[in-house]
Amino acid sequence: MKSQNELGIPIPANKPLIVRTIKQVTKEQREYALKKTEYNVFSFPADLLFVDFLSDSGSGTMTDLQWASLFHGDESYGRNKGYYVLLDAIRDTFERGDNPKRAINLILTGETNVKKLMDELYLTSFEGGFVNGGIHQLIRPNAFIVPQGRCAEHLLFSTIAPILRKNYNSKEFFIPNNGHFDTTEANILANGLNPINLFSSNLLDEFPWDQMDNRNPFKGNMDIKRLEELIQDKGMDAIPLIYITITNNTAAGQPVEMKNIKEVRKIAKKYDIPLFFDACRFAENANFIKEFEEGYQDISIPNIVKEMFSYVDGFTISFKKDGLANIGGGFFFKDNGTFHRKFSVEEDIGIKLKEKQILTFGNDSYGGLSGRDIMALTTGLYEVVQETYLNERKFQVRNFARKLAKNNVPVILPAGGHAVYINIDKFFEGMDSSLDDFRGVGFTIELIRHYGIRAAELGPFAFEWDKKTPEQKKGVLNLVRFALPRNVYGTSHIDYAVAAITELFNNRDKIPKVKISRGAKLRLRHFQTGLQPIYE
């Protein structure tokens, strides 16, 4: 008889104890709502949907331990107790591997020994890592709490852009990435810098759906050859940072190989360029490394995370991703590392960053978050690296992609860790269609109209194809993403979505082209523009 691990399906990792009833909205009611919201999927009321795959950002289900942690939230304006446990949880997660200190337990267990609290939590001194502590976090701050990932990106790029223009000998600056996501790209552009996508050359290669459990080609990798060519072409001074997004959300949620991270690190070190992670889905990426990269099968997720982050100088992160919490973000860099040295030109870069953090998001110990949210996301940091959770989420995404592929729907394979991506170029292959038609948007509109399912176009509309130069257009893919929030949907939701998507695929000649009726020039326009489907 097969053991529980030999059955070929993941062992259940949770059981939901709360049920939310879905409203039975008619097609006519959704059509009316679409018209009233200018056919923008971000503006469509979530309460009128059957299934919502728009994003997994902050939309997942928190665990019982996270809900319990909310009651320990401290709303003090200056130095709430959650601030200290969050910073130490960052050290635990990204630096300590299998040897966490779990200082949060001092709070959750109601520790009353004041000396113990002072010595082990409130007045401890740390330096040399991603999170200084005690006096070092005051004189050399390197950890910044913010409401979400795009706030961290704004904090980073709006602070370094003036320093670059004043102190570095280059007229233009370029930020290479294996795949900038929409907010990262927008924040870079908003500060007069140039985002460059260096997708892996095998990203759109065919992959058999029945091999997803056996191998993975790590299509999220950065193109090393193109990275070196970019640096040599533009010059070292023109490349202030190198970014790696894990997993690669823009590139169909594909994972990045540890080998690739080390190769990028080698180039960054060669040219003395800081290397950063967009670390939103770090745990999922580590899980792929453990499953598929040679030499990591017997290494724990925490230790894989520790190694990944040992190669970078800093990272921005949305704590809303990877199933961590409903809100929160952060920006962290290594004390006295490459980034700290290169950007502390006239004064310590951490002091400049903290000044802007306080000016825009609030005092540094809460960064625009409630104390309750800080405690919930701190607890989430310990839960997100649990292999049972990661495996169940990963296999749910694989099953979604496998069912679509069996129905001949052109999905990017193998599936990533948090979402299924449809290749819109192949979806409309053989039809009179161009990127300027925004047919991917038409597909998302029809999904809502006919079936009450919401997805996100991540293609020429979202990444502003029509506003880009010919060179920039090379970094635009044509995808629609179905992101699965953590612990929210079950098999019935997936099967309903598969049936609906397949039906639209079989009737794709009826999917409309879309024109922008308002706000075509807006930055991050997919969040707010008006649209008009053109039905023939």
Describe this structure in words.
The chain contains 20 helices and 14 strands. The chain is of the alpha/beta class and 536 residues long. The chain has two domains: 182 residues, Aspartate Aminotransferase, domain 1 (Alpha-Beta Complex), CATH 3.90.1150; 249 residues, Aspartate Aminotransferase, domain 2 (3-Layer(aba) Sandwich), CATH 3.40.640. The strands form five sheets. The chain has a five-stranded mixed β-sheet with strand order 2-8-7-6-5. Strands 9-12-11 form a three-stranded antiparallel β-sheet. A two-stranded parallel sheet has the order 1-10. Helix 7 runs parallel beside helix 8. The longest helix is centred in the C-terminal third of the chain and has 20 residues. The chain is globular and about 70 Å long. It starts with 26 loop residues before the first helix and ends with a strand.
